[in-house]
Amino acid sequence: MKIVLLEDLGVSKQIIDQHSEKLKSMGHTFIAYQKSNDINILIERCQDADILMLANMPLDKQVIESAPKLKYIDVAFTGVDHLPMDVIKNKNIAVSNASGYATQAVSELCISFMIQLLRHVREVEQRCRQAGTKDGLIGNLLNNKTVGIIGAGAIGKKTAQLCKAFGCHVIAYSRSQVNDPYIDKQVSLQTLLQQSDIVSLHCPLTPETTGMIGENELKLMKKQAILINTARGGVIDSLALAEALKNKTIAGAACDVFENEPPLTKEHPLLNCPNIIVTPHIAFASEESMIQRADIVFDNLYAWLKGQHINKV
Ligand code: NAI
User: Fold this and answer.
1) Which residues line ligand 1 (CB under 6 A)?
2) How far is the CA of 14 from the centre of ligand 1 (A)?
3) Domain boundaries 103-278, CATH class
4) CATH code that applies to domain 2-101+287-305
5) Rounded distance, CA 74 to CA 92, Å?
6) pLDDT of 271-290, one tens digit each?
7) Closest protein CA for atom 37 of ligand 1
8) For the residues 21-28, what does the mean pLDDT come to?
9) Where in the chain is the domain with CATH 3.40.50.720?
10) Residues 6 or more apart from 55 whose CB is under 8 A from it?
């Protein structure tokens, strides 16, 4: 089998070299490339591959259509919305993901966003640097707040568990039945938006969830509520959120994800509105989760080579 790794997995060269040697000793060809966005280069790299490995680089359908031997794509990421899944499905190409590698990392960042927003950390930090005081910037506790989790999967449930440790009341809106010791009640989206002090998004980006939080949904939220998005940018209407922050329809927001992968343009509406923390898609990215992610994708690969399809998408 020819196995092509299309981008860096964020682990040491030593780890990749060890897998490369092992795969070669099993009779396979393994080639690791640095990421390229050039479609012609990608077509050339993939055209005789049996297996592709990649993280979150977008892959154009032309690349898939130009790879007749392709049987398996091993994705070192949770979401697969950066892949042309319709073409992949039509060509009967199997896909695995690395679901789970970032659960702790994303949930921890969510808690950090919640506390930073509730305690106005960005603003007081600036004041402190300007030799000022905390006057007018006394914030609130996370304790006793109602947290609304949208999408109670692995990350949603872990975030619920961490929120419980802070004494929060946790409600959830999810597509399927939720049965979790850390979620107090499953509610409708409308009830969640109306009752939550903190709304945290943890659903995948699908046609159903695209634009799920727009002007009308933001208006349902409490004036003092905050919105955390570590899911996918497209789940929120960015223009509507920027307006809601300018008009104080809600009190604050934190976004780790946007419609496009950062770098964003300086004109992006969420970079030009108040009371928002923005990070360039860092929630998954801790050293520990990168190592765990590489372990999962190489386990996926060795299982596939033995005829087993695990972490199936
Ligand atoms: P998961 O598959 O375990 O959970 C997703 C949950 O969303 C499921 O409970 C599902 O029933 C629910 N859901 C699906 N469609 C829904 C809808 N229309 N309405 C309400 N709920 C819906 O996935 P996991 O591991 O918890 O990840 C969730 C998402 O977080 C991923 O799809 C990905 O987009 C994002 N993510 C972001 C990262 C970051 O670095 N910012 C890192 C990892 C994941």
Assistant:
1) 78-79, 99, 102, 106, 150-156, 173-176, 202-206, 208-209, 230-232, 256-257, 281, 283-284
2) 32
3) alpha beta
4) 3.40.50.720
5) 14
6) 999 999 999 999 999 999 99
7) 231
8) 98
9) 2-101+287-305, 103-278
10) 7, 8, 9, 10, 75, 76, 77, 293
